[in-house]
Amino acid sequence: MDFINKLNIALKEANETEYWLELSHESNVIDDKQFESIYNDCGKLVATLTKIIKTTKDVAEK
Questions:
Q1: Nearest by Cα to 38 from 26, 23, 14, 21
Q2: CA 44 to chain centre
Q3: Nearest Cα to 5, choosing from 40, 56, 45?
Q4: Distance of alpha carbon 46 from alpha carbon 43, whole angstroms
Q5: Which of 41, 42, 51 is nearest to 18 (CA)?
Q6: How far, in Å, CA of 18 to CA of 4, rounded?
Q7: Does 1 score more than 90 pLDDT?
Q8: How many Cβ atoms sit within 10 Å of the Cβ of residue 59?
Q9: pLDDT (tens digit, 9 = 90+) per residue, 17-62?
Q10: Quick check: 16 pLDDT over 90?
Q11: What are phi and psi of 29, to 5 degrees?
C-alpha cells in the first residue's frame, strides 16, 4: 500500500530526527530543557506513526 509506504518513510525520518537530537544534545548544541521537550514530542510522533502503521496493516489484512 502506498499509504503504508509513506508512513514508513515518515517513521524513518522521525527515528533519524531522534538520532540527531541526541547528537545535538551530546554536543551541547541544545540544552537539557530543549532536548527533553523536543525529544519527548518526537517519541510521541514515533509511537503514533508505529500505531497507525500497525493498525493500517491489520485492517488491510482483513
A1: 21
A2: 7
A3: 56
A4: 5
A5: 42
A6: 21
A7: no
A8: 8
A9: 999 999 999 999 999 999 999 999 999 999 999 999 999 999 988 7
A10: yes
A11: -75, -35
User: Cα-flanking dihedrals φ and ψ of residue 2, to 5°?
Assistant: -65, -40
Buried b (16+ CB within 10 A) or exposed e, 11-41: beebeebeeebeeebeeeebeeeebeebbee
Among 62, 57, 45, smallest CA distance to 10 is for 45
Amino acid, res. 41: D
Cα gap 53→41, rounded to integer Å: 18
Q: Give dist(CA 53, CA 61) in Å, integer.
A: 12
- Cell 551541547 sits on residue: 28
Q: Residue 44: its pLDDT value, please?
A: 98
Cα gap 59→26, rounded to integer Å: 41
